[in-house]
């Protein structure tokens, strides 16, 4: 083999390899009000607020909500946004201020804000009052009242662009025309710190007070520190003053670092102890060099307000991408090897050697490099177009084989060279060709070698290729990556599984793990110590490999790669790890580097909020009272729009929820990326909706968001409705029964009346028959008996005639019909008096004018029946009858001194029609009948009825 000297075309003794970092931009495409931004803050509810030239935007990590003049802002040009201690958002515009609370915009108009020009900053005092800083002066807001502290009509004099508290009575304010003002509030006065007094630049943009009470001033090209009335100046670059205008200053937690934003040079970090600057700008992939606002959020993400690039999120320097922009001869990096404390990159235009991440040399320039492999003998094999070169530690190279090869392997026993269609094998004694397509990785395993292809993983032993038991190509193919763990184990990856393969005592053992347990779209893997690293276009994942193999348990940590940070993704099997544990990945866009030590992990769970509640399809969020949802029984189709505010990995935030009170309502839903929870046709009752979320990397919020829900019962399910219904039903039944009874009684009364009327008619007929027929015949018989001088016959005939007349009179009282009720009663009394031993006392008022014929007849029959009962049953000696008119009623009282009787008992057991007739006739004339009988004392029968 021919030995050649190492040739070097390019030598880079000190070419600094600037890195591309991972940035995420949000512009109008993502919903930001405008891509030209001025100010940015994070509110207490963790949301990001941005001031733009087209209103202000509120960002929750996924969606923007914008406020413009259409919502009530006095102007769309908003230089500043601020939050007070009561969580009010103050917006400063070119024409005044607005206050946003609970999505409502209020614009004060008690003073003329327009004359103050641009509102540039706000400060809140300990008493909750607000100081408003503008181009023309200062306004104080306290107890809902605005007071002008200072106003200048001079439009050339910009009073303040930013302000900071020094103490409770002192404020420092920067101005772009007059340096810095030291303002004393009580009494109000100020002094100017400028080019005349302190020899500073009069153009100042930002002022910040640190914990040591040093005043840091961001100006045109210079960072000033004012301490004890003395100025120190720190210049980022004397040759680029115009590009280093410091618009924003933040204080890092370490107390020694200041974050700076520049109009013209991106952002920087200033070390107060060393006085040095570290810049990040477009050379590092920052979308814009014009940064006006700069904050660090609660998750340690940096947020930048830029000119025409929207807002930019920057997390840390853990992920870097080296590209042609930073000096690579080609962005297509197909392989990388960590060899002798240097990195060797295989590119399409040579081998790039990095020493401490600086380009040291480029070997074989403008030559396509297919593969770089470190051999067991610690040499380097380089597959170049049309030859394979072996580089030794002293830097010399030797061509070991002519030809173009896609993969290479060499140890002291065997050499493998792979091309598209075959595998060429060289030993000390022989060489031969094996027909097999596209072998991309070869390594030793025990007493054999592993050949990795897209379609299969095969074993090579004793000059033969064989299938590995458990890895049959008919079942497992499309392999993307493989890595040797040790001399007896390897791990491999395809689109469905991760395979752990071990070889002990000549026996293979294969374990498979579904890729769904880890994620998707992984292209490369690498085992380092106890960790299995997986890489895709979107994320890097670290799996506890020991736990996976020994207990089949997945413990995974994920590191998100920004969208389009690696546009073409990481190459298959393109993952390597340096001895320091730094992850390297080959890509078509350069060399990707991940340093886990620099990764700033988000250890905070997301803030939870209910973004909206939909009833069917309409929002009811504004109708929620006292943080409780109250609905009627038919308002039972609810959609909850859950919101979890987290920015580090917002695309992967998972939600879970439950509706306590439902059947199985204590069970959480399965975690899902969907932030909508839908409940249809919820029964009436008391419920509590709860949801929680993770931060996109498995850290769940331990305190769920809760809101009670009360769906009222329909009125027919409420207890009082049932009580009222039962009562109403009972009342209806009672009324029905009462009406039924009344109808029955009425029918019965009618029947009784008909019967009585029929009886009266029959009595009248019988009485007439007795009078007209039997009476006439008896009268003739009497006359004949008299003419025949038969005295006994005559007496019998006379008695019979008299009895018939009496019966006829009883059946149909002629006197009643002819002379009226009063005469009829008197005649009845006289008749009974004449035929009995009873002593009658009668006081009878003439009431004939108050009675019609029917009432007179019924009343007569009642009196007749009572007197008949006295004669027949009472054993009385005297009877008193009192009939008279009393106001609007007629009262009949009949009293005897007989033996009396048990009226109630008699009514229950008696079968006599007489008493029933009394009651029925009383009902017919609407009379009240009262019988009071006392044993051995007598009976009083009282009848009262109204006069119609």
Number of strands: 72
Largest sheet: 5 strands, antiparallel
| Gross geometry | elongated
Strand order of the largest sheet: 1-40-39-38-37
Mean pLDDT: 89
Architecture overview:
- The protein is of the alpha+beta class and 948 residues long.
- 17% of the residues lie in helices and 43% in strands.
- The chain has 8 helices and 72 strands.
- The strands form 17 sheets. A 5-stranded antiparallel sheet has the order 1-40-39-38-37, with no helix packed on it. Strands 2-36-35-34-33 form a 5-stranded antiparallel sheet, with no helix packed on it. A 5-stranded antiparallel sheet has the order 3-32-59-58-57, with no helix packed on it.
- A hairpin with a 5-residue loop joins strand 29 and strand 30 (302-306).
- Helix 5 (821-835) packs parallel to helix 6 and helix 6 runs antiparallel to helix 8 (913-924).
- The chain is elongated and about 190 Å long.
- The model is unreliable at 1-17 (pLDDT under 50).
